[in-house]
């Protein structure tokens, strides 16, 4: 295993991992892959999704590696529960299924990565480290699936079904983030100050944000303004 891809400034404490798979042999193999890395440590093992949730309540864990197909609660169901229970917990899905439906469900459930068991010895360690850096990890076929899904939506006129903001709200958001006053924004967009203020209130409400600073951070993440 390549030890040169450790994240810079890695903390001395290893990443604490909860591993869930209903096959003991698979768990043992995965544990061997993870435990031979100095920055990774499996601290809890579960045989199904329900047990994984119970262990997450009683153990301090940084990362959950969940098999998708498990009894009682699937990895997808467990991922949803764990995301609600421990919002800071990173989640990786481990599966033998190169399946687009599972991939999209996993991402919706809060997983930050999707690793195929067939190449776990190659990908899993890198995926764990990526998850802890808040970087998504997808195998090449999954990336292709995401791009194809996006292009299909474009072709069918559904380019961004999850789009929250109207074009005008985006304009106001960008100008707010750039530090313009309501009066300046009104003059730039040829609208009234009252309308600008209404747009700002709508933005805060829609995005669940509190103030200009949070709006600015959102605008940076959305690529509307440069940091």
Automatic annotation (TrEMBL):
Which Pfam families would you find in this protein's record?
GerE (PF00196), Response_reg (PF00072)
- 4-aspartylphosphate sites (modified residues): 67
Q: Where is the Response regulatory domain?
A: 16-132
Taxonomic lineage of the native organism: Bacteria, Bacillati, Actinomycetota, Actinomycetes, Kitasatosporales
Q: What is this protein called?
A: Response regulator transcription factor
State the superkingdom: Bacteria
Q: Which InterPro entries match?
A: CheY-like_superfamily, NreC/VraR/RcsB-like_REC, Sig_transdc_resp-reg_C-effctor, Sig_transdc_resp-reg_receiver, Tscrpt_reg_LuxR_C, WalR-like
Q: Is Transcription found in the keyword set?
A: yes
Where does the HTH luxR-type domain lie? 158-223
Q: Which organism is it from?
A: Streptomyces lusitanus
Q: Keywords in UniProt for this one?
A: DNA-binding, Phosphoprotein, Transcription, Transcription regulation
């Amino acid at each position: 295993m390549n030890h040169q891809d450790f994240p810079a400034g890695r903390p001395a404490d290893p990443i604490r991992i909860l591993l869930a798979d209903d096959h003991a042999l698979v768990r043992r193999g995965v544990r061997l892959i993870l435990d031979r890395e100095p920055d990774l440590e499996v601290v809890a093992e579960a045989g199904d999704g329900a047990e994984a949730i119970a262990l997450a309540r009683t153990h301090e864990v940084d990362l959950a590696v969940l098999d998708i197909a498990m009894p009682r609660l699937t990895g997808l169901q467990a991922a949803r529960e764990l995301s609600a229970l421990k919002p800071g917990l990173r989640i990786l899905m481990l599966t033998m299924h190169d399946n687009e439906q599972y991939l999209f469900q996993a991402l919706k459930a809060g997983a930050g990565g999707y690793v195929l068991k067939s190449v776990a010895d190659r990908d899993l360690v890198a995926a764990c480290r990526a998850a802890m850096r808040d970087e998504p990890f997808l195998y090449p076929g999954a990336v292709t699936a995401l791009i194809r899904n996006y292009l299909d939506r474009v072709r069918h006129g559904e380019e961004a079904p999850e789009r929250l903001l109207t074009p005008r709200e985006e304009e106001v958001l960008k100008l707010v983030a750039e530090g313009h006053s309501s009066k300046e924004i009104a003059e730039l967009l040829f609208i009234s100050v009252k309308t600008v203020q209404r747009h700002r209130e709508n933005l805060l409400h829609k995005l669940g944000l509190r103030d200009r600073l949070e709006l600015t951070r959102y605008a940076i993440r959305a690529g509307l303004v440069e940091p």
